[in-house]
Amino acid sequence: MPDPAPVLTKPFDFSQEFELLVRAYEQSGGKPDVLRNSNFASLAVHGNHVLGSKTVPGLHVETEEMPTGVRVRVVVEPEARIPQPVHLCFGLIPQEGIQEIVSLFEIGDGAEVSFVAHCTFPNALRVRHVMDARIIVGRGAKMVYRETHYHGEQGGSEVLPKTRATVSAGGVLQSEFKLVKGTVGKLDLDFEAEVADKGICEVAAKVYGKRQDKIVVRESLLLRGAGAKGLAKSRIAVTDQAHSEVLGEIVGEGPFSRGHVDCVEVIRGSEAMASAVPRLLVRHDTAKLTHEAAIGSVDKKQLETLMARGLTEEEATDVIVGGMLR
What's the first-to-final CA gap in the chain, in angstroms? Predict the structure, then answer.
């Protein structure tokens, strides 16, 4: 379990906020050096304060501080190839507060970029974190977005990430949301994407719910164009009294569109609860959608194999769940 992060003692001190945020960023799995290195594009936001912003050729970042958060616009020029991941750090160090991030990502035609985002709230007792993202992936462009959350051990957060994405013809969007350390409290993840001709959208959520966590994951893909492809994937584990609910939805509207919903939920203990609802809708006779879901305890054969190698049942279960959420 990571050590608790220091709590801010002054209303606003730029250097103190930045250093505490960097420390929290490291606790959540981020590499703190990238936030100080001018060779990497990055953005660091604490509450509604923009503490740092660095760009590279082909990448533009605009920010606007709001009373309870920050508005962010990220633009990648057409045909630009951003060689290193863009690092984003959003967080709140105090035990209570609200952070709202309203973001717009515009990826120009033929461009290619990846983002590594860390959202960290290590002392959260009563924190509300709202992410309202709009993503536009241009024709033939590619965007990879990987977001990792850490919310301390108190279960005092309400996390509301909402994404609305458009993938243009031939574009690719890969998005992953990960929250496997700490205890969040409430998570309501809402992702929707519309995919044009020969576009691809792959969305994945990996979450470990503990104590009284309430986890809701909704992933919805509209394969509107001819040859569009989509994957809605979720890997959820719940223990103690945590509950999870997953809705994976794909609509195959374009000719020869292909989609797949893949959901695995594991429960540990007699008080945890998990549910999954796949929804597939086909509107063209050449479209094809599939789904698979597995809910329940860990795989018995895997468990027996690990226990035969000397692990206890608890240790073997930890290994299996850890591998699923990696």
Answer: 17
* Strand 42-46, strand 49-54: pairing: antiparallel
Average per-residue pLDDT for the chain = 91
Whole-angstrom distance, CA of residue 222 vs CA of residue 217: 17
pLDDT of residue 13: 65
Compute φ and ψ for 242, nearest 5 degrees. -70, 145
Find all residues with CB under 8 Å of 280, minimum gap 6, and list them.
249, 250, 251, 252, 259, 261, 289, 290, 291
What region does 47 belong to: left with phi over 0, alpha with psi -120 to 50, or beta? left
Report residue 44 CA to chain centroid gap: 17
Cβ(182)–Cβ(211) under 8 Å? no
The answer to whether the predicted template modeling score (pTM) of the entire model surpasses 0.70 is: yes
CB atoms within 10 A of CB 296: 11
CA distance 30 to 121: 13
Question: What is the DSSP pairing of strand 69-76 with strand 59-66?
Answer: antiparallel
Helix or strand or coil: residue 62?
A: strand
| DSSP annotation of 307 | H
> Does the structure show a pLDDT above 60 at 1?
no
Looking at residue 9, its pLDDT comes to: 46
Identify whether the C-beta of residue 277 lies closer than 8 Å to the C-beta of residue 247.
yes
- The residue-averaged pLDDT of 287-307 equals 89
